[in-house]
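Justification of resources, computational component.

The compute hours requested in this renewal are based largely on the per-chain cost of generating structure records like the one below. Each record pairs the submitted sequence with a full structure-token output. That output is archived, and it is also reused by downstream analysis tasks.
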Amino acid sequence: MDTSETSRRAVDEVDLLLANARLRDELEPYRDESIDDPSVSRMSLRIENEYLSSMLAWERAPALPIASWFTPVLEIPSPDSLSDEALSVVLWDTIHRLYSQNVVLRCTDHLSDRELYKIIYRDILPCCEKKVEIQGKHLEWRCIEDNDTWLRYYADAIERRRFQEEHDVDIPPSETAKYQRDLPG
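The structure output for this chain reads:
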């Protein structure tokens, strides 16, 4: 083995250890059990530093209404003011704009365009969330409010069986949702 390669690895390891110490110092005011999670000790130093960096980004991120994540603030017309055709155009534009800010919508296929638009208008855009910009990470918004909807349209056979066993309840029949969408993300 080339000695320059060995010394380069040692320098990289020292840099990783120094970065780890810095990250842990910066996280100290936010310290809780997630930093001391035993699974962290099973990570490589590089992966642990990525994990600690993401935790630090989360702790420092501002909680803002999602509409304020945009410049200018994302304002969409009231659902009652739009025809079905106009609403569909604004809906898809809004879905793509949300995705541009790493907001991914899930479990929407049981909702009509108007129902989904109302959820975005009423629930998603005004909701305060931490805006964390970490490559490959996104805010996932599940557009369901109850277990029956999830079980009926989205849960796979294993999830359905597990839910039935855990809760000892009858579950609704599995169905294909009416409004199939190919959403970004």
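The mean pLDDT is 89. The first strand starts at residue 63 and ends at 65.
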